[in-house]
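Record format v2
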Amino acid sequence: MGHDIFEITVNGIKLVLIFLLMVQAVPMLVWLERRGSAFIQNRFGPNRVGPLGLLQLGADAIKFLTKENFVPTSAKKALFYAAPVFALIPGAVAFSAIPMATPVYIEAFEMFGQNWGPYRFLVQGYEIGVGIVFILGVSSLAAYTILMAGWGSGNKFSLMGALRASAQTISYELALGLSIVGVIMMFGTFNLTEMINAQQGPLTFKWMEYTVTANWLPNWGIFFQPLGALLFFTATFAESNRLPFDLAEGESELVAGFHTEYGGFKMNLFFIGEYAHMMIASGLMTVFFFGGYSIPYFSVADVQAWALSVTQSEMSASILSALLHFLSFNIKFGFFLWTFIWVRWTLPRFRYDQLMDLGWKTMLPWALANTIITAFIIYFATI
Amino acid sequence: MNTDFINQIGLNHYLILAALLFTMGMAGVLLRRNVIVLLMSIELMLNSVNLTFVAFSKYLGLLDGHIIVFFVMTIAAAEAAVGLALAVTIFKRFREVNIRFFEHLKG
Amino acid sequence: MTADAFLFWFLAIVTLGSGLSVILLSNPIYSALSLAMTMVGISALFVTLNAYFIAGVQLIVYAGAVMVLFVMVIMLFDLKSDTVAFAKGKFTGALKVASVGLLAGLVVAAIDLSKGLIGVKDGENHLVALGDMEATKSLGRILFQKYVFGFEALGVLLLVIAVGAVSLARSKGGTHEH
């Protein structure tokens, strides 16, 4: 956490801020989703409360908070109450491990008659050496919240939804894990920051003793792993239970799936959990395949040098470059979040056997093929 | 109470913890009658063994323990798959998953 | 108490508590959920032992897949909770408890006796010196050089297991007449 009180406090506040950032993004995404769906389906969406319907969010929040707290008599109380709370944890913990900008330097200063040494704060909750493995592991725990909710509700539709959801999560975790093995092999690291550092500059490709450089393209992972990117993004749709894979809550068959019996704020927590998964998926997509927080055509060092020439002070230069990179990260991040919404309102839902066929018979073999081909190319390129 | 035992965490602490977990698993296997709980107790025992391997690996400075943990994990996953398939078969037949239905093995 | 010691005792209490509830709770669902909790605790213990990659794999394989499978099967059966956690068998419970206690005593005594025998190298621990990625890389090297036979054998075993599980699940059910 840190070496002295100041560092520990700042890191603690940072964790809370990242959590709040994640939770605060949810109402905006809900608004975007409702307006976007209306736009895609040629209707209006919420446009009465406030300008562009923006105050609809506040109205919804008040409705969620003041709704009657209802527990079905057949429910297992402990599980019923625990499930929505647990739904938040995996998302929040995994999201904090994604780097969002370059670190911020704080110079040595004097406060309360004491000297506080120079600090270096990362713009992420915590840096973990085995970043990807940690994120995959933690977000795989999300299956329990669905199972707990489904079992705890004491409702057959909930149970069916939970069973479907967990089977789907386990099946697609395989394709998800295998699709990023290629990325891991290519960068040779699990660490997300090192991956971002490896994706700077123009597109450079080494084959035997030749080096091909394409100046008009950034050195992003998508150009090396197009199939991996496609498989990864598809699998994350299934992992976060979004359309076209939202069999867990297929309204036409299961009322609302595992959260049939939930209402008000508890329902809202499940919602935040689902959006958190979308955000993790978008963040990972950005980091693995689109250069993370780095700005295309400018390396991190370039931006830092420019910021230093503008501000003339190391501390404000690091803050400026962190802000710029944060903006760049958010543009990419927002694009993928929009893609999630876009796909949801464009594609119809799969049938359950089609879902399983796609996962086991199409995506898994392709992910395996991608791994093997990547291994061969890396072997021959570095001979 | 010896405060050294509380403050100085060493190999023995991990070994004793793993031994306790193993004992719990064994007690579960011997005392419970539900097939699924039996399987879960076996998982508990395997996990405690993993803990000893990783602890030894750290304190002896060898990585081989980690490899054995991989192997144990694979075996555990395989065992769970077959065990659950057996449990499903028994349940389909008797609508019950009690260990007493495993008594005779004739086909 | 140092931070390391606090972490260890906290995790030890969590794992032992949830491990106990696995065998004491009469509802298999709660047993399975507490076993998942135990797995997460053990994964955190792996982190305290500098085995980061193993900790991640433990989370993905055990907590994320194996235990979800257990919970799913229990839910599929829609089992009522057992009326008593410990039903009587041929041997009385006291005998079993005694044998378990005996084993526990043996194991602890063995650990206590072996204290001096194991050459613990705290100072020259090369696992600590290696970075995360270096440790993982050398792990891969050992796996594919020294233990490559075991690795291949496990691959074959998994294939056999997959075939066996599928054929078991597809069978009509039951191994014998009533």
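The mean pLDDT of chain A is 83.
The two ends of chain A are 42 Å apart (CA to CA).
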